[in-house]
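Researcher: I'm preparing a figure for a lab meeting and need a structural model of a single chain. I don't have an experimental structure, so a prediction will have to do for now. The sequence is pasted below. Please return the structure as tokens so I can convert it later.
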Amino acid sequence: GFYANLLLTQTPEHILTQTNNKTEILCELKKEHTGVYWYRWSQERQHFEFLVFSNTLGKTTYGTNVSQDKFSVHEARSHSSYSLHISHLHPSDNGTYYCSVSQSSQLLLGSGTQLSVADALPLPPKTTQTPLSKKPVPWIIESKAASKKGLCSPLVWIPLAAGVLLLLLGLIPIAHHLYRLRRRLWLRIHRQ
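Model: Understood. Here is the structure written out token by token.
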């Protein structure tokens, strides 16, 4: 909640990484405390799990079935900053991780860090050209894709055509009005 953000800051908000990598979540504390708790919320299992507690003396207590090889807490800057290190990452580690402190018999949670572990990360779009030795088929596919996004795209010409049509329809009453004025003027001139 609101008070938690004043007392502790958790970074980053999101982590996207690959299987077998390791990662780190930082928790900075503004007030006196006895130690930091780390929890994981699993959306898939709808389960809030206690992972590890590290007190100011550096003693660590692990939750049931929590691997000490996988999770470790590192303290920095004289008890004001703690980081949770997670190694040997696997998709089963997906979830939102919270650092937490005990304040007057309440647990205050950080803002949470959403961890997503994937076997392969999505690749950024290619900007380099493919070598000429490859078949020209990818070039044809790319040029078709480019033309869909280009000037011939229905997303471009349909609104454009509609705009031109509305403009023309708007000119009809004006043209009619000018025609009537011209005719009145012509009649006036010829009556004299």
